[in-house]
Design a protein that fits this description.
Elements (H helix, E strand, L loop, with lengths): L1 H19 L5 H17 L5 E6 L4 E5 L17 H13 L3 E5 L10 H7 L1 H12 L3 E4 L6 H4 L3 H9 L5 E2 L1 E6 L2 H9 L26 E5 L12 H18 L10 H15 L5 E5 L12 H14 L3 H13 L18 E3 L10 E7 L2 E7 L5 E8 H8 L1
Parallel strand pairs: 1-6, 2-3, 3-4, 4-5, 7-8, 8-9
Antiparallel strand pairs: 2-10, 6-7, 10-11, 11-12
Helix pairs in contact: 1-9, 3-5, 11-12
Length: about 400
């Protein structure tokens, strides 16, 4: 019976939610991201922190766990073994951990429900906290950590230690050139940004330091900021229905158009600046060098055709055909995108996989941990190469 109801109701519910929730709004998102970056640079510690990326730095970024109450609506439950295996690996290898928002699903559950049913994962994260290697960023589904007067007490009760929660984090390579340039400027964007009177002309400044800006990615999105419909729909329709149908709606396959539109706006903001990389979560759609997996396949196909590599063309075409149901939309400019935008994906894929982004002093990588607790590097790029392209 449940399976029959799933088939009957899935498409109408998705249509209804798309029709009445807001689409991402470019001007709002641009303004919100710029204001957050400026605030962190000018007043570090208030809304975010500035961290140095040193020669021995190792950082893992995960987002969008959506930990729930271990019921039919809990998107994280199946991915928990993958996540725990990943945390064991990163702790043993001395990584810092940045949790980039929506770690807790507090639209559909009370905090007490989440605390009660996720003690194992909280304990695994606690190991990083005790070593001062854990940074927590809030998202739209766990906005509680930013706006509740008792959030700090709750976090201490969970982890046994005080923990600040931020809206964003900035990573800067630890070198003399960066610090010298920082002393000479008043506007934190001045060594990166386009001229104020144009959207196209970039300031001709050489040797800009590579700066990585991390935030959840919901800023400026009216539906994600919590308009009346999103609150009503989640509380009264979405959560009970998802629990009954046991369907994980938090996947790009169910809302590809909306997520692609949001990722494109994030890319457009990041592309306005030199030597600036933006990393978000929020869409649950992994992005590396500004490309989703389907976009990367189409780019590789174009390169193979241009190079007359027949065997490679055939292989890529077969992969596109095999995965074709997931690849309905692709930005027209995917062949010329700057590699300035990355997305960590999520920790709640319905097959139990999780994705994240690793950063060291030398490189950045998109990784996947599968249900068998195995780590796979999906994409990687040296930071030196990335910086040279973004100059």
């Amino acid at each position: 019976m449940r399976r029959l109801v799933q088939i009957i109701l899935l498409k109408p519910i998705l249509w209804f939610s798309r029709k009445f929730t807001s689409r991402p709004e470019r001007s709002r998102i641009f303004k919100a991201l710029s204001e957050l970056f400026r605030n962190i640079k000018e007043e570090p510690g208030k809304k975010g922190v500035v961290l140095s990326l040193k020669e021995n730095s190792r950082i893992i970024i995960f987002s969008d766990h959506h930990r729930g109450a271990k019921n039919g609506a809990d998107d994280f439950m199946k991915a928990e073994p993958s996540y725990l295996a990943a945390l064991d690996y990163y702790f043993e290898n001395k990584f810092q951990y940045i949790s980039l928002g929506d770690a807790e699903e507090l639209w559909e559950n009370t905090l007490n429900q989440v605390k009660k049913n996720n003690t194992i994962t909280f304990e695994a994260e606690k190991k990083f906290i005790l070593k001062d290697k854990f940074f927590k960023v809030f998202g739209n589904h766990d906005l509680y950590w930013d706006n509740s007067p008792i959030a700090s007490q709750q976090l201490k009760a969970i982890y046994g230690k005080k923990l600040r929660v931020f809206e964003g984090i900035i990573l800067e390579k630890d070198n003399k050139e960066v610090h010298t340039q920082k002393k000479k400027i008043n506007d934190p964007f001045s060594i990166f940004k386009v001229k104020p009177d144009t959207d196209n002309e970039i300031l001709p400044i050489a040797n800009c330091p590579l700066t990585i800006f991390l935030t959840h990615g919901h800023q400026g999105d009216k539906s994600s900021d919590g308009n009346w419909f999103s609150k009503f729909f989640v509380a009264n329709i979405w959560a009970p229905l998802q629990s009954y149908l046991r369907i994980n709606f938090n996947t790009p396959a169910y809302d590809e158009d909306l997520k692609t539109a949001h990722n494109l706006i994030m890319y457009e903001w990041s592309a306005k600046f030199k030597s600036l990389v933006l990393i978000t979560g929020h869409t649950h759609q992994p992005v590396f060098e500004s490309l989703t997996h389907p976009e990367k396949l189409y780019k590789e196909l174009g390169d193979a055709l241009k190079a007359n590599k027949a065997d490679e063309v055939k292989q890529i075409e077969e992969e596109i055909k095999r995965r074709g149901r997931d690849y309905k939309t692709t930005p027209a400019q995917y062949l010329t995108l700057k590699p300035s935008y990355f997305n960590s994906g999520c920790c709640c894929f319905r097959d139990g996989d999780i994705t994240g982004i690793e950063i060291t002093y030398e490189k950045i990588a998109l990784v996947k941990w599968n249900i068998h607790k195995q780590r796979e590097v999906l994409e990687e790029m040296s930071l030196e190469k990335l910086q040279s392209i973004l100059q």
